[in-house]
Amino acid sequence: MVSPSIASSVDLLNERQMEILKSLVVIECLVERERNRKPLPLSRIPISTGLTVSAVEKSSKTQSSLLVDLRQVSQLLPAIELPKRSYTDTLSVLQTIGIDRSENLHSDFISALLDPLIGGENASWLLQKILDRILENAPRVPEMYRVSRERTLGSLGLLESSGISERRIDLLIESADFIVIIENKVDSRESVDQTSDYYKAVRSCLNPSDDRVMISILLSPSGMQANCEKFISVRYDLIFEILDELELADNSAYFGLVQFYRNELYHSLIRPKLELRDRIDLYWKGMV
Fold it and tell me: Where are the alpha helices (DSSP H) in the chain?
């Protein structure tokens, strides 16, 4: 049957990829039933799907279509570079206690990693690397800037009469030259007009003479698109790749934070996608 790590990858995928994964599950059921030479109850299928085993068996067209879909899914999945370090001999503390998918926890870690009061020049380097990777002409990140968690729109000056003053921005980074909004999504979706409200609220609270660059980021495992066109979609893969490159003296507290989080990030959000891609490639090679 489909492994738990593959099943847990479902929430990393968009709707198209989800349908293909469902197809993979059906094919796995067919393979197991053929191997055992006995009927496999559909209740054993761990993911609900509109495709039934009998429908796949009876239609060669459906089978061919599934094989093509399985081949294409590795291209649909975002390209992920293999880590420079080895994480295979490590365990996930957060997975062990069941909080590795906590959106707030990931936001807390990223906030701490980007905060110069915690990481000093290493935090500035990390923010600069992120901006350089997503912008053609990224502003220069100074040594000191302000990082805030869950700033309400009301605290920025938005009036209560707006009806959205209690909405909270996951991360708000402010310097003399730029403002960065980061909205983080792990398992949830954007609520109605969420990113649009954030962008408009921050923009409306600036003085007319304030010429700071506004950079808006929607961070997610799959790189989902924001409703607001001003937001740049960024995958967690990018954060992981940069952290994987980071070299620090191992006697610093910031090094401990980086080492812990990049290991947790690998196990919770990166490894499942690598495994899914490899599994589909194996199916394609074995069934054509």
Answer: 4-7, 15-36, 53-58, 60-76, 93-96, 103-114, 116-119, 121-134, 194-204, 236-245, 253-265, 271-287
What is the rounded radius of gyration, in angstroms, for the C-alpha atoms of the chain? 22
pTM above 0.85, yes or no: no
Percent of the chain with pLDDT over 90: 35
Q: Which range (116-125, 150-159, 257-266) has the least confidence?
A: 150-159
For residue 268, what are its two tokens? 């919770």
- Rounded Cα distance between 40 and 31, Å, is 10
Mean of pLDDT values over 131-151:
94
Q: How far apart are CA 88 and CA 157, in angstroms?
A: 48
Torsion, Cα 264 269 270 273, to 10 degrees, reads: 150
Cα gap 231→123, rounded to integer Å: 22
